[in-house]
Design brief:
- There is one protein chain.
- This protein is of the alpha/beta class and about 450 residues long.
- The chain has 3 domains: about 150 residues, 3-Layer(aba) Sandwich (Rossmann fold), CATH 3.40.50; about 160 residues, Dihydrodipicolinate Reductase, domain 2, CATH 3.30.360; about 90 residues, Alpha-Beta Plaits (2-Layer Sandwich), CATH 3.30.70.
- The strands form 2 sheets. Strands 7, 8, 9, 10, 11, 12, 13, 14, 15, 16 and 17 form an 11-stranded mixed beta sheet that branches.
- The longest helix has 21 residues.
- It is elongated and about 85 Å long.
- Bound molecules: NADPH dihydro-nicotinamide-adenine-dinucleotide phosphate (NDP) and L-homoserine.
- The site of L-homoserine (HSE) has 11 residues, from helix 7.
- It catalyses: L-homoserine + NADP(+) = L-aspartate 4-semialdehyde + NADPH + H(+); L-homoserine + NAD(+) = L-aspartate 4-semialdehyde + NADH + H(+).
Length: about 450
């Protein structure tokens, strides 16, 4: 049997030298001996593609490595690490590298959630590889456990806090009553937020991660367009207070759930019981809660953003893929995209509970009328609580009628039935206003 030829060194082209790329470059430089030992051959950083050569850069890295010619860098590298973000030119550069059979490592969830399946197929076709552990929940190992460790089990549900910026904002709003804009600026300063933070606050960043997780958890491939997505912009201090009164906390959750005939993928502000493990996830930390048939409930927790933390996951992929290259071993086949997988179902086919806050007329028979609406749609009520409507006294007075606030928490029911309940309540004579509707998970 012929022994594989061990390369004397593997060349690494780095595309992007920003928050994450600068840390990858620093660690490749400072920990060169460690990587050489772990890989079995030195990793030689050949260049760092950036947009502008005028920006101040990481002091530990040789300034001569910076270039604006990303295409030339990709041309002959054994390993291409893409940390530019966005779709183009990242996609074309990665395609170019994969067509040459190179190892590609990326942290780019936006790209993987749109074109991951095609890029993985291209890698397989040309004998290269594509990995993106850093793309979901940054430093937390979650893609590899779903792909490899749980390959002998059936995953029913993946539910997580997948965006550090929004968790940081919601956490500070909940604990300090901090103002939204002020906390967002702090998240940007700390390097958690995307270049355009609307991707964070509108839930698109988490939605991309849900699509990637669903492919690995259920097989097949999903895109961001199949994720029903609502961000945190409409969450108010009143929502946080109402949640706290009910023993709940508001979190932006990404959920991929297997149903009998498909999978529902969603991102939305969610009320989580204070005693649930996800409720304890603070600041920019992320956590992914996995429910599998035989393993039961698993929780993966850690830093979900930040340059150094994300670089750890990027370099984990680099070392693993480089080691495969050195040993000449066949790369693993991805489950995502390799099997047909379940179809994506519309959000109306989700099954969830909701907390519905209403401002209703304070008169005999109103509770009966409200309860009747839930019964008509076969939605069971878990808890109902009536309280004073202090914040709306002036409105009630102006309207010449007295009102109270009703907080209803349902049992799990089909989303379509819950939507019908809310539509009927909005039209009911004794309901002055549907104040808020938020889904509840983890009960
Ligand atoms: P940054 O915006 O900080 O850095 C992007 C880098 O790419 C910059 O160095 C920029 O150059 C360079 N770049 C962008 N466009 C081009 C282009 N067209 N040609 C050449 N260079 C270009 O991003 P991050 O480091 O925060 O993120 C990188 C990737 O990692 C993204 O996909 C992100 O989603 C992902 N990620 C980020 C995490 C984080 O916590 N920040 C966590 C997990 C994943 P220049 O410096 O000149 O502007
Ligand atoms: N902007 C992202 C976040 C970075 O806040 O979680 C990690 O993907």
């Amino acid at each position: 049997m012929t022994q594989p030829t061990i390369p004397t060194a593997l060349s690494v082209a780095l595309l992007g030298g920003g928050t994450v790329g600068s840390q990858v470059a620093r660690l490749l430089t400072e920990d060169a001996d460690l990587f050489a030992e772990r890989v079995g051959a030195p990793l030689h950083l050949t260049g760092i593609a950036v947009r502008s050569l005028d920006r101040p850069r990481q002091a530990a890295v040789d300034p001569a490595l910076y270039t604006t010619d990303a295409e030339a860098l990709v041309e002959d590298a054994d390993i291409v690490v893409e940390l530019m973000g966005g779709i183009e030119p990242a996609r074309s550069l990665i395609e170019r590298a994969l067509r040459r059979g190179a190892v590609v490592v990326t942290g780019n969830k936006a790209l993987l959630a749109r074109h991951g399946a095609q890029l993985s197929a291209l890698a397989a076709e040309h004998g290269g590889s594509l990995d993106g552990e850093a793309a979901v929940a940054a430093a937390i190992p979650i893609l590899r456990p779903l792909r490899d460790s749980l390959a002998g089990d059936r995953v029913h549900r993946v539910m997580g806090i997948l965006n550090g910026t929004t968790n940081f904002i919601l956490d500070r709003m909940d604990t300090d009553g901090a103002a939204y804009d002020e906390v967002l600026a702090e998240a940007q300063r700390l390097g958690y937020a995307e270049a355009d933070p609307t991707a964070d606050v509108q839930g698109h960043d988490a939605a991309a991660k849900v699509a990637i997780l669903a492919g690995l958890a259920f097989g097949g491939s999903f895109t961001i367009d199949q994720v029903d997505c609502t961000g945190i912009a409409a969450i108010t201090a009143q929502d946080s207070a109402a949640a706290a009164e009910a023993g709940l906390v508001v979190k932006l959750l990404g959920i991929a759930e297997r149903q009998v005939d498909g999978a529902v993928l969603r991102v939305h502000p969610t009320l989580v019981p204070r005693e649930h493990p996800l409720a304890a996830v603070r600041g920019a930390f992320n956590a992914v809660f996995v429910e599998a048939e035989n393993a039961g409930e698993l929780m993966f927790y850690g830093p979900g953003a930040g340059g150094r933390e994300t670089a750890s996951a990027v370099l984990g992929d680099v070392v693993t893929a480089a080691r495969h290259r050195v040993l000449g071993s066949a790369m693993r086949a991805d489950r995502a995209g390799a099997t047909a997988g379940p179809p994506a179902l519309p959000i109306t086919q989700a099954s969830t509970s909701e907390m519905i806050v209403l401002r209703v007329c304070d008169a005999p028979g109103v509770l009966r009328d409200v309860a009747a609406v839930f019964a008509e749609h076969d939605v069971s009520i878990e808890a109902m609580r009536q309280g004073p409507d202090a914040s709306d006294d002036a409105v009630a007075e102006a309207e010449g009628r007295s009102s109270v606030r009703l907080r209803v928490i349902t049992h799990r029911a089909p989303q379509a039935a819950l939507d019908a309940v809310v539509a009927d309540l909005s039209a009911a004579e004794s309901v002055y206003e549907v104040v808020s509707v938020l889904r509840v998970e983890g009960k």
